[in-house]
Amino acid sequence: MRPTVHDIAAEAGVSLATVDRVLNNRPGVRAVTRDKVEQAIETLGYVRDVAAANLAKGRTYPLIFIMPAGDNSFMRGLEAEVRAATVRSAAERTEITILTVPAFNAQALAEALAEAHRRQPAGVAVVAIEAPEVTAAVKRLRDDGIAVVTLVSDLPGSARDHFAGVDNVAAGRTAGSLMGRFLGNREGPVAVLAGSMLVRDHRDRLEGFQAVMRDCFGTRALLPVVEGQDDAALAEKLVAALIDAHPDLAGIYSIGAGNRGLVAALEKAGKAGTICVVAHELTAYSRAALLSGTIDALLNQDAGHEVRSAIRVLKAKADGLAVIAAQERIRIDIFLKDNLPSGQV
Amino acid sequence: MRPTVHDIAAEAGVSLATVDRVLNNRPGVRAVTRDKVEQAIETLGYVRDVAAANLAKGRTYPLIFIMPAGDNSFMRGLEAEVRAATVRSAAERTEITILTVPAFNAQALAEALAEAHRRQPAGVAVVAIEAPEVTAAVKRLRDDGIAVVTLVSDLPGSARDHFAGVDNVAAGRTAGSLMGRFLGNREGPVAVLAGSMLVRDHRDRLEGFQAVMRDCFGTRALLPVVEGQDDAALAEKLVAALIDAHPDLAGIYSIGAGNRGLVAALEKAGKAGTICVVAHELTAYSRAALLSGTIDALLNQDAGHEVRSAIRVLKAKADGLAVIAAQERIRIDIFLKDNLPSGQV
DNA sequence: CTGTTAGCGCCTTCAT
DNA sequence: ATGAAGGCGCTAACAG
């Protein structure tokens, strides 16, 4: 039988309350007494039963998730994962609220953060936009003791506690590697379609992609980046224009969302399967395009993992606990049509 | 505040004990009373607090893991993950024992399963070998109400409750896709180095690989499979012979372990970076080879995920609960040198 | 500074 | 067939 607080109390010759004070390093214990208790903990090899502790505490964690609105499939999937987490709220002692804001609008995001602040949650998860007013709003939350985690897109240099998302520079590098190797010695330039340079994840991916193309496939021409605002209609127009302007276009790297438009443009131009396409995020559309051969490779971040990690970290930070970084790392999944998980999505 | 057993008891006008009987559908409750309680559960929207239930029950789960001995890095990493899980035993109410058996030895494995049976655990996780005596031993465990999960390598057609591992046919297909595309129109045959055709995972990978090479890259010659018994020294000898016999060898697909030997042979022959290599499992050796360019792509199964999933499933099955298949799916990770997680391993 | 006492939500004898 | 009472391991008032 593993030792309990009672055993420690007996071993150390003190009361339960004192043991509890030491365990939760609360004040009001003489150093000598503390030592005795810690000694007992050590010799008995005590480890606290977290479930029992939570039961006794009855603590809950009000959490707020802020994410962009719009028809971006990835973001809607992310929201679905947050909703799935609210279902588990009972077991996890969380109370999750979702706030949606217009995409790529720093002002609106800052206001949502202020609104979240008013509600006094234990923590806030936010899909960030890099802008001074957002950074400032995050700082105010942290100054008030509210934990903040950035989700999917980071806000480096801010006061946020943690970033729950992938290494987007590595993602861009991987995209570059696949593009370069898949193209081999085939002729023609490569285009890049991003969502917006306002968000850090897109900027990071671009940086990684350009670095690999430059360092490893230096002879390949890279066209200037075009920004589709993660909007399918705009993306379609832009890609159609690219195909038109560059009949020998060999590849397209799609950094953000709007893959529906990208695919439509390729198909209408009769270039599906001819131009090598590397894109991001597994959605119903991108899955179909991968299977049909219009998209050659898909880099994905698992929204479910990100949401669950964000919740774990927010709870830990709210309790002032450290997190094990390695355990919270989100991986970049690479999907070819051959290793696509059969599941839904 | 969510409702508790007390609320149900009050609402139904019965005692706590009766509510408990209904909740755990134990006998000794009149149908009318049962109905009243179920009605109350329904109207109050009660969901039981599993943590509290476990605390009260004090139930633990004795589990046995059976895995191959030897210097196979992947298997040692797997064992390390099991050991890591034993550390979490306290919180998870598990008591894990590890049994190691000689690799690729069906007789020894069957005996280990019998030994596990004698110890009467709640569940057994086993890295399987496909053989009648193993299938029979698994059946005896199941017939005795002990949950069985195959780990890494499956035993299809047996009575096992679940397989905690990747879709190895898909893994083989992915390897084929990458090999074919990376080689492009470069000349030369492709060799396959397996561990043993006795284990299902190797057979499945081979099947997937051959299918894609045949269907999508039909002009590429495939050499007959050689078996290295997951042994580095033997693998080195075999690969050296292959290189010798086929000066124009374009690619090698390494299905199993022994990558150390593979890499050594390539380096000694001065073929490192020239022959396209796709291999499995991220270990200290394969990581180094990927970074140096000797290995071009690495398919990986996350041993930690597999072990944790196996434990979750064993506990659930031991309690007679269903598992959510989608949640327990283990993914195939693809690593290029650009998306290698920076961590240890 | 330290100890006593009463729960958290659930399960389990033991009576009735 | 049903109920009362005590306890799982921990925390949180409230006393002293």
From TrEMBL, chains A, B:
Gene3D superfamilies: 3.40.50.2300, lambda repressor-like DNA-binding domains. Keywords: DNA-binding, Transcription, Transcription regulation. CDD domains: HTH_LacI, PBP1_sugar_binding. InterPro entries: HTH_LacI, Lambda_DNA-bd_dom_sf, Peripla_BP_I, SBP_2_dom. Pfam families: LacI, Peripla_BP_4. Residues 3-57 form the HTH lacI-type domain. It comes from the Bacteria. PROSITE patterns: HTH_LACI_1 (PS00356), HTH_LACI_2 (PS50932). GO terms for molecular function: DNA-binding transcription factor activity; transcription cis-regulatory region binding. The keyword Ribonucleoprotein does not apply. This is Putative Xylose regulator from LacI family.
